[in-house]
Design brief:
By secondary structure, the chain is of the alpha+beta class. The chain folds into two domains: 128 residues, Pnp Oxidase, Chain A (Roll), CATH 2.30.110.10; 34 residues. Helices cover 36% and strands 29% of the residues. The protein has a seven-stranded antiparallel β-sheet. A hairpin with a 5-residue loop joins strand 1 and strand 2.
Length: 205
């Protein structure tokens, strides 16, 4: 039984290194102040609602880690209940590494990245694959997204933490950039038309 929710990551070995490096006192104060969140809060829901991707980490029985990119419509990672997130699993390259890992080791990790706002959230927990549950698929799927849903994956949260924004390079999703590019292209076309008209006037005169 963990004393603090953050102990899922702050193992005795980690705490020893924190002590050696001088950061243990600040993290000890964090633990006494309530440690990390363990449920789906409004803050977490709001964070997920804008994201169209995340990274899912799993490990096989031998301890070999694997990280997979997951993408979909904004907000496709959804709250199922106070402790559980879920998402529709789309067809891919059919390697099934994540499914194989979860079949022998349920421990999993989700890394949420908001590159545009330089924010990130780390979630520790367990995950399981749910096959042949049309009701759950309908709850998690987005009819407007073209990906073929093959199953659902549920992630039960044990702890999560907001990470610092340091060293996050800003990147913007296509849906945000495309309208700006269209406006700039329209302005360029307008200016080119005006230049052509001015050039024609000079030739006539």
């Amino acid at each position: 039984m963990r004393q603090y929710s953050s102990d899922i990551a702050f193992t005795p070995a980690v705490k020893d290194i924190q002590t050696d490096k001088g950061s243990r006192p600040s993290y000890a104060r964090m633990e006494l102040g309530g440690s990390w969140e363990t449920t789906v809060t409004p803050e977490l829901e709001a964070f997920m609602s804008d994201l169209d991707m995340f990274y899912l980490g799993t490990t096989n029985a031998e301890g070999q880690p694997y990280i997979q990119y997951r993408g979909g419509s904004p907000g496709f990672l959804r709250k199922v209940d106070e402790k559980t997130l879920g998402f529709a699993d789309f067809g891919g390259n059919r390697q099934y590494i994540t499914l194989g890992n979860l079949s022998e080791n349920p421990k999993a990790f989700i890394f949420l990245m908001d590159y545009a706002r330089s924010r990130r959230i780390k979630l520790w927990g367990t995950a399981r694959v749910v096959e042949n549950d049309p009701a759950l698929v309908d709850r998690l799927r987005d009819a407007s997204y073209p990906g073929k849903v093959e199953r659902s994956i549920l992630f039960e949260i044990e702890a999560w933490d907001v990470n610092c924004p340091q060293h996050i390079h800003k990147r913007f999703p296509q849906k945000q950039v495309a309208p700006i590019i269209e406006q700039l292209q329209a302005k360029i076309a307008e200016l080119e038309t005006k230049l052509m008209a001015l050039d024609s006037d000079r030739k006539v005169s």
